[in-house]
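Lab notebook: predicted structure, single chain.

Context: the supervisor wants predicted structures on file for every construct in the current expression panel, including those that have not yet been purified. This is the next one on the list. No modifications to the sequence; it matches the entry in the shared construct table.
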Amino acid sequence: MAHREKAHAMRALEEEILSLNITPELAAQANRLVIGDGSLDADIVFIGEAPGKNEDLQGLPFVGAAGKFLNVMLEAAGMVRSDVYITNIVKYRPPENRDPTTAEKAAFWPYVLRQLEIIQPAVVITLGRHSMEYFLPGEKIGEVHGQPKRLSLGDSMLIVMPLYHPAAAMYNGSLRQTLIDDFLKVPEVIRSFNETT
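Prediction complete. Output recorded below exactly as produced.
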């Protein structure tokens, strides 16, 4: 799919979420829909949990403190934010930054899959357990973080790599180092994927 087609498809997806009023309770109390940000031609898509206060105000994912930490890790791994795509499993901010509910995640899951169909990444990096559980049901993040798993999604193969959420790591020193160590494996995971496809 050409870049222009991808941009059109992503806009249409956004308009569909708004016109169908997905998760009306969340939509009513949020400032805006936060669909995602970054390159539609990215090899890597990061999927977090849900927008927070800053994201809700700016309409962009990962722009608060957790986003700054994510940017630092991208830089450490030799990547730049504009080359990847970043989104969340739930596209509206839950009130008081509570965890998204099972129903809210289920409502947005088909749209996450369609985003991946549009972008066609090689690697999906889940940030936190809420996005991981949809790709790797039944797994515990404490046991599988940093371990790439090969999955088929529709007609394409991709690697899913679960990582701790940057927000959790910011408040827990040992998790922080674990997340950084896991993150630094990402370029090698992409290299190995490209060599085997």
